[in-house]
Structure formats: structure tokens, C-alpha cells
Amino acid sequence: MTPANLRVTLIQTALDWHDPAANRLRFDRLTATLHGQTDLVVLPEMFSTGFTMAAEQVAEPVDGPTTQWMRATAARLNAVVTGSLVTRDGDDYFNRLIWMRPDGRYDTYDKRHLFRMASEQNHYAPGISRLIVDLNGWKVSPLICYDLRFPVWSRNRIGTAEGYDVLIFVANWPERRRYPWQTLLRARAIENMSYCIGVNRVGSDAAGVEHTGDSAALDFLGQPLCPDLEGEAEQTVSLDYAKLLSFREKFGAHKDADDFSLT
To answer: Which among 60, 120, 139, 145 is annotated as catalytic?
Structure first.
């Protein structure tokens, strides 16, 4: 049976610097009317603090306050909630994406590619594996920001256990590099023959870095599914599995993909 359409909500907003409580209240407001209206809510990278290298200062423990907030929010909305936050796990710090289900169970993905231009690799440990999750019969692969620049890591293997239907990037991507953000999101959608969702923040951070958002929902041809998002915005899109399957059956470029392995 073909899965039903998947409703995905993109939430683009400014973030309060190093203030998880204020940010959680912000997202409470932005998600207040979403119960029964969506299947998946996507928040930006480090949505509780802003993109920070002060890991020791702001990191939360595994299943800390923001993860507990995500659990309560997912239950309230009866939808998956995902986004990344600063987490301390053992002796290491991670830029960790949480995939929180309405029943309180969750999976995690640790950012693989750490942004060296901000010395992220000096403050966080890299992830070692991708995450592919099932949501209402859809396969979803969530990644984080700088991962967008590395197509091998996000490579789709349609028809295998490593295949997916929706690729997600949560980000704090600055205005000065907005063209690569917009271009690479489209490239990832086209080359992987999948829907692609990118959720970015807006506003300035504590270092004065400006973000214009440019969050996007794209189909498997790289075509937009919603208008360009400006400022604080909430947008829900509907992804059509039948259209995706029909395209893959008619245009089977994935069958000619090169074999390779990651080391």
C-alpha cells in the first residue's frame, strides 16, 4: 500500500542566544495551533541556544530539559519533532539531532561534518553513522547544516536499507553564503531523487552573523513546494509518495548509480 501524503512543518525563526528556556517558549508559541495539522515539525540547528562553540557552558545531559520539552511537544502535537541541540554524552559534546516521536521514543544523529571555519571540530565530537527513520511508511534521513556540502554522506541508495524518500537539513546557515545553501538543497533533491527539506534560522547571533532563513521544501526535481520563507515563518507542506514513486519508476537514474563504500 502506498503511504499517505506526509505533512511536514518548517519553522523558521530567530533564536535567543544561550537561552534554552526562552527558545522553548518561542517554539511553544509557534507550534500552538499544529495539533492534528502535521506529521513532522522541523526546527533549526541548535534551536535551543543558537550555533555556539561554548559547548561546556550550554550543553545539556542526555535526555535533559530540551529533550524532555521535545517529548512533551511531540505528544501534544501527536507529531514527530526534530532539530539539533548541544548535548553532553559521557566525556564528549555533540551537535545532536533528536528525532522525537509522539510516544516519547527517540533516535539521535550526531553531526558528521563539523564546521572547521568556526572550529566546531575543536569543541564537538563527530558522528559516525547516518540515521534513517520510518515515519508513516516514509523513509527519512535527517542531517545537519554543513553536512549539506558533502554529497557522498547524503547519498541515497534507493531500494536498499540505506534508501530514503525525504532528506532533511536543519541549519544555522549565514546570509553571506545563502546562494550555496539554496543551490545545494536543490542539488541534493535532484541527485538523490527525493524530497528535500531545509530549515534555517533568521536574525543575528551573538557574533553579529546574519541569517536570512531561506528555508525550503523541494520535490524530487528540485522544484519548490511552498513560497520563499521570509522572517519568522511557519509553513506546512504535503509530500506525495505516489508522485515520488511514479517519477522513480519512469526515470530510473538510480539504477545506474556508482557503487562505493564509506571508510
So the answer is: 145
Residue 257 lies in a domain: no
For the chain, how many residues are written? 263
Confirm whether 147 is domain-assigned.
yes
- Establish whether 111 is a catalytic residue: yes
pLDDT class of 153 with cuts at 50, 70, 90: very high
pLDDT above 70 covers a percentage of the chain that reads 100
243 tagged catalytic: no
Q: What is the pTM of this model?
A: 0.98
Q: Where are the beta strands (DSSP E) in the chain?
A: 6-12, 40-42, 60-61, 80-89, 92-100, 106-110, 133-135, 138-144, 166-170, 195-199, 202-204, 210-212, 216-218, 233-239
Domain boundaries, position 12: 6-252
Q: What is the CATH number of the domain that holds 77?
A: 3.60.110.10
Active-site residue, from 111, 139, 196, 234: 111
Say whether 145 is catalytic: yes
